[in-house]
What we know:
This protein is of the alpha/beta class and about 270 residues long. The chain contains seven helices and 15 strands. Strands 1-2-3-4-5-6-7 form a seven-stranded mixed β-sheet. A six-stranded mixed β-sheet has the order 8-9-10-11-14-15. A two-stranded antiparallel sheet has the order 12-13. Helix 5 (about 210-220) runs antiparallel to helix 6 (about 240-255). The protein starts with 5 loop residues before the first strand and ends with a helix. About 50% of the residues are buried.
Amino acid sequence: MAGKFEWLAEGIWLVGRGGWGGVEPLSKPTDSNVYLVDGGGELALVDTGSGAECPELLANVRAAGFEPGRISKVFLTHAHSDHSAGAAWLRGITGARLYAGPLTARALAEGERYLIGPLQPFERCPVAPLFIDKWLCDCDTIQVGNAKFTALSTPGHSTDSFCYSATVGNLRVLFSGDTAIGNQPRKDIGPAVVLKGLLGWLDGHWSAPLGTYRASLERLLRARIDLMLPGHGASNDAATARSGIEAGIKHLQRILDDPELYVMFAVAR
């Protein structure tokens, strides 16, 4: 199987991506972004895509020049299946340890259908239990070779959402999951369309209170970063990331100021 990948920055590759936004998938069309981080002595993945089996990811890791067996850690941003469904298979193949926040860990262990779900929004179903190797608390730090990851609890898009602030080489990187997707081109809408301040999907079944979400975004605004790597779409440099997070806060504030916007959205789904 021929692999596909994108080099993003020193020590960071995109090895999985679905078709969100109208881009060409690198792996399964329903995958989240899956990032490979080279810390020098070991490798890590951030999120695992949607596949119960995901040989495409392994082929892409090899195409980037690495043996999948060197992957020692896998970080999950939240339990939604487009981010977590490949975790059990990847651990079985590589022996990597799985890291996630406590609500993600509990949801995966119990097959909690509203925090996991299958591949389409609003179709929630149980899955086989998956046990996380290391439950993370807010501000926990984890070394991946020379790279340092810090776990950030950021409930919003989902109650269990975590982001990861990482120092990789000389870069300060924010793996923002679906908490902040930022300013994104949308080729599926039009060739020149860029949407500002995109956030992960909001739904009363799994989202945190909107005021809590706003506080999580405000926390991300205070982080000093060079690069934001979201769970879907393209990377954001520091200025674009700040602009996108600020726009996301404004979107939430509009709903907080007029709750009928949220009610109408939920009904219209």
